[in-house]
Amino acid sequence: MRRSSSIDRIPAEARRILHRLAGELWGADVDPAALVVSQLKGALTNEVFRITWPGGEGDPRKVLVRIYGQGVEVFFDRADEVRTFECMSRHGQGPRLLGRFPQGRVEEFINARTLSAPDLRDPEISGLIARKLREFHELDMPGPKDISLWQRLRRWLEEARSRCSTEEARELRLETLGDEIAELENVLSGVDQRVVFCHNDLQYGNIMIYEETRQVTLIDYEYASFNPVAFDIANHFCEMAADYHSDTPHVMDFTKYPDVDEQRRFLEAYLSSSGENTSDVEVETLLGLIAKYSLTSHLFWGLWGIVS
Predict the structure, then answer these.
(1) Which of 157, 181, 198, 282 suits 64 as a labelling partner, its CA being 20 to 30 A distant?
(2) What is the SS3 assignment for 252?
(3) Is the per-residue pLDDT at 26 higher than 80?
């Protein structure tokens, strides 16, 4: 975490929102000299700052300021992401939206712990994530219920091709990826599967836990859209191979990919959380789909990395 006592790092529009919020939330005035600005590590798309100012009897008052990253429009539509965040806030999911400014927004500061890479392997926490993900998938979100995955992959592939030299494109085999995407779509589109509102980026940094209540909440919905259930779970399993706080955050250790028993436990927790009986056939079918969708997850974030 990088610290700075200077509020100048925060845009003027955001500072005006902080001044207004202090009066609305706590009946307090903002002394700029008293504010502590702490940049939080781990955000890959945006700059995220925790803003703290003194409260009564040692109770610090905190909000979070998110400044949107530059050039992210190639990855997702910012207007759609803002609408998703506002809708999630109304559903009582994640942090509340406290204010918006042109370059970002002010959010409620969630007083919970962000998960670490080892947390994903903890059986209790993994079960909590599974049940929370099922709840997320059951949300009634607006918009067409169309799968976004294939269109997004093709758009990112074209963007990657436009940014790479001929030599780089050959080295990365970009000329063949279009055929591989088409093959995967052909294989997977003929399968009967549930399409739901997916998080699409379920890495440990986007999952928080309240230690006292053991409740889990999902945050950061930039990439959220409608997709098959199996894709969202496959992406989460792939994220178990990542450690974004290591010296080599881009290197995945696939010895940490969950084995079949670990996958099965996650699916049983996911499927049974609705109160329905879970059949072995249902679990095995989903396991097979997840194995295939893990390939699309590699394409998804591989292309993201090239474009980034």
Answers:
(1) 198
(2) coil
(3) no
Q: What is the residue type of 204?
A: Y
Burial track 260-297 (b if 16+ CB lie within 10 A, e otherwise): eebbbbbbbbbbebeeeebeeeebebbeebbeebbbbb
Query: Helix (H, G, I), strand (E, B), or coil: what is residue 3?
Result: strand
Question: For helices 229-239 and 123-137, what crossing angle results, to 10°?
Answer: 150
**Average pLDDT, stretch 126-155?**
94
Query: Considering just the CA atoms, what is the radius of gyration of the chain in Å?
Result: 21
Length of the chain: 308
164 CB-contact burial (10 Å; exposed 0-12 / middle 13-18 / buried 19+): middle
Backbone angles phi, psi at 208, to 5 degrees: -125, 150
Residues pairing with 104 in the sheet: 67, 101
Longest dimension (CA), the chain: 63
pTM to 2 decimal places: 0.87
Q: Which domains does the chain have, with CATH numbers?
A: 2-108 (3.30.200.20), 113-307 (3.90.1200.10)
Query: What is the predicted pLDDT for the residue at 58?
Result: 53
Q: Quickly list H helices, 37-148.
A: 78-90, 123-137
Task: Please state, in angstroms and rounded to a whole number, the distance separating the CA atoms of residues 47 and 248.
Answer: 20
Q: Which residues share a beta bridge with 100?
A: 105
